[in-house]
Amino acid sequence: MVYRAPKWIVFVVGIIALIWVVPIIGIVATSFQTPDSIARGWWHFSQNQFTLNAWRKVWTDYPLANSLWVSTKVTLIATVLTMVTAPAAAYAFHYLKFPLRRTTLIIIINAFVLPQQVVIIPLFRLWREMGMLDNIWAVIIPYVGLSYAWSVFLVKSFLEDFPKDLIEAARIDGCGPISTFTRVVLPNLLSPIFACGILQFLWCWNSLLLPMLFLRNDVTLTVLLARISGTYDPNVDQQAVAAIVTAIVPLLVFLIFQRQFAVGNRVSSGGKE
């Protein structure tokens, strides 16, 4: 039997979807219109003039391609490192016994309430003394470190329901901690790992504060977007182009991996439902 949602739910969802879509249409339309048309109102399609001048100007006057590559490189490295190290840390905190285990976990989890602004000045001084300013690792390392607060917590919450019989069976078969993790636990952690990866990718890609402070020449797309603003001309059309290029990648990533992200919220007994 196929369940059909009430018509009022479809109507409400449609209204909410329209509210979300209208600004996107406005940004796309703005990127293809002249400044006079934008001032008149981007929604006057019959009266406005459409052009590709903003797209050409952004690609020629600003290092958009290089910023796209920098954002991709920084985000992918930070995401992969988080996806590799967070499950191992969660496994260690959940199953292994070592000194100050609980204290260390509490310190990591409490980083939830630690704003990025608190670590900016100490980090800036540290990177300056080490000569790491304008180095992508000055951004990647804080990305990975600050993500442990939620990524380790997410994976550890999954391990709370992981079957302990599998761990005991692996120990009886002679597996050590590393073998148990790689052969038994890790294959069943794909759902939370993908969830961590998607969240980390979106956060790193859209982040502005750390790249703006630590990078100078090779900047990310978000920093470039902040720089595309004229002194006397607002350059709304060019900012719309940069906004589209900046938003298209995380949108595609979410659309491609949304199934893994959804499954990450429906895990049970160490496996997928």
From TrEMBL:
Keyword Transmembrane helix tagged: yes
Keywords: Cell inner membrane, Cell membrane, Membrane, Transmembrane, Transmembrane helix, Transport
Ranges annotated as spanning the membrane: 9-32, 74-93, 105-124, 136-155, 240-257
Residue ranges of every copy of the ABC transmembrane type-1 domain listed in the record: 68-257
PROSITE patterns: ABC_TM1 (PS50928)
Subcellular location: Cell inner membrane; Cell membrane
Topology relative to the membrane: Multi-pass membrane protein
Principal place of residence: membrane
Function text: Part of the ABC transporter complex UgpBAEC involved in sn-glycerol-3-phosphate (G3P) import. Probably responsible for the translocation of the substrate across the membrane.
Quaternary context: The complex is composed of two ATP-binding proteins (UgpC), two transmembrane proteins (UgpA and UgpE) and a solute-binding protein (UgpB).
Family indicated by similarity: Belongs to the binding-protein-dependent transport system permease family.
Name listed for the protein in its UniProt record: sn-glycerol-3-phosphate transport system permease protein UgpE
Organism: Kaistia dalseonensis
